[in-house]
């Protein structure tokens, strides 16, 4: 026993390393007969899920997976993907979930960078995976052991098939609990929209704490029914893979984000909670009446990834969804803040409630602090709703660091804060609100224009389904806003009409000078608009040459 102070000790009786593996143990004990995972006609109870996770861990250990070995997986939201979030850490290994939208070249880069010793691949992604392995072999890199994941209980019958390995795995496997709660549990690669992705290291401690924080932020009830929209590969499903276990919930896995499917599954399974990017909210509110269903209860949704337009939030409320707005990034295990709701706001008009809910809010329960700072002086800026600075966070749910990149880790955490690269303000009540990514701010005639603010106005246009605003070169002003717009089915609008709509609601210098109509905007697999691609399009259009004196 180590003495902490007179009369107190740290010992096995009062200290056990925190790990989300404990959530599974408790769920199997308390809710063993309740359904844990549903996917089509397949379902497993919590007791069965624990046994399958143990069998998976045993099989991986037989293949040589040891502590800190990386096990990569590329799979959609399936029972196997859910189970691997427990089975891999049970070996002491580190789970690395790869984006299912990556091409073979990127997958090969990440397999090499992560040093993956085992690679599990869902059947539908096998062609990409095999191409990636050929690229690895051609580069002379070590190849991981490959295990295929089929979409049935029977599997393919091969010794390197996931279901077959579960059936043949030696029983009696003993969980390798972390020796230190700071031991790594997963490796998550950033989206990499502008550069080679960085590998973000999550610890058992951070995953444990952020799972509970996300459950609290979303007011997840005991034994919830959780609809999986967020990919489990993205920040480990915003830590809700582990969070659903903490509450003994049922995970409903679906293969489509179509509003029709979402409404059907909510009604069929009695869904209580879900999470998604704002783009999914827009899809839901714009779904035709024939695809909607009357919800049996209000469904609570944690939305994050980009600020949802207030107009969309208002419509979601009318449809029976209660949207909780959060904010975070891969480096914060997903959710870091929540727009914590105050009862007195219930009496406000719907539009005002939506405007408040569009803010990113306050730190969740497990994050120590969030601040708006000058990135050079590190001065904390006034909470006046006007002073724009960089959003910075610190606390127990910040990543351990970037894998094999000490320099990037040091730079990102310079000054004792995680620098997010996002710009925002803090209001008088302490709630933060994003203004833009630092790289997305439009500097026009010396004025900073928030693309988020312009997009919010565009979403208020009755014909607009989706919108994104980026900078276009301008010979006179340097840059001016360029709006890429997708119209609702059957809707009509002109570029001039949309510009005038914005000018009636914004200072003229903030209104778009260019409007480009597109059938759809480019998105990442997690629903974020790929603005770097739109910036390339805007740059390729060349500079606007005629001075716009109407903005003065």
UniProtKB/TrEMBL annotation:
The keyword Ligase applies. Residues 521-552 are annotated as: Disordered. It comes from Panicum virgatum (Blackwell switchgrass). It is an enzyme of class 6 (ligase). InterPro entries: AMP-bd_C, AMP-bd_C_sf, AMP-binding_CS, AMP-dep_synth/lig_dom, ANL_N_sf. GO terms for molecular function: 4-coumarate-CoA ligase activity; trans-cinnamate-CoA ligase activity. Residues 24-403 form the AMP-dependent synthetase/ligase domain. This is 4-coumarate--CoA ligase. Belongs to the ATP-dependent AMP-binding enzyme family. The keyword Magnesium applies. One of its GO terms (biological process) is phenylpropanoid metabolic process. Its cofactor is Mg(2+).
